[in-house]
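New to this. Please check this record:
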Amino acid sequence: MMFKERCLKTMSTHIHDRALRESPSKRTRNRRDVPPMSPPMKQPKSKKAKRSSEASSSKTREPTLGWLIRLMRRKNGREHEDNSKKIIDKELTATDVHPNNNRLSIPLSNIVELEFLNHEEKRAIEEDANKVNKEGVDAILVTSDLREFQVNLRLWDMRGSLQYNLVTGWNQVVEDCRLKKNRNNRLWSFHSNDKLYFDLVPLSVSDQ
């Protein structure tokens, strides 16, 4: 099977399987015409239980971070709707932070919201599929302290596993943000004027 066809089939399968697993309430999370249900009273969780719950929810869609909403409003205008996507919760590996690699790997199988690219970006990724020298999609990565880095998103077949990779400026992100192996980060994305942005957030500040 050609790489391009395999890529499209894999992404379609992930999206279909995730849609079947999602509950109706999750699929309609953005509908404003559905009144919220009153949940039953629960005992407050201990801090330890809360941390355990957060650790087990890496593939769920949490509310958009406050600072990320403010950033989108600054880029897009105050009334612009939230178009953020949760990409992945990632424990950085030695490969992710080694300067010889200059890449952050993002396995398709671990992505929470696969539909984070617009039409033009999808087409660019598809056209790259069978190229040896890939061009990818240029993007801007913003850290939680609002520093911006130029990066490039590419899709590679790495030993039979399809993975997105953030490349080009990733080493600068690692160096300036002092990223280390085993540190947990959350990656978000959004668009401003059709420009792709990524947001890298240490999980220790993910609720701010």
Remarks:
- The mean pLDDT is 77.
- DSSP finds seven helices and seven strands in the chain.
- Helices lie at 3-21, 24-27, 47-55, 66-76, 94-97, 119-128, 170-177.
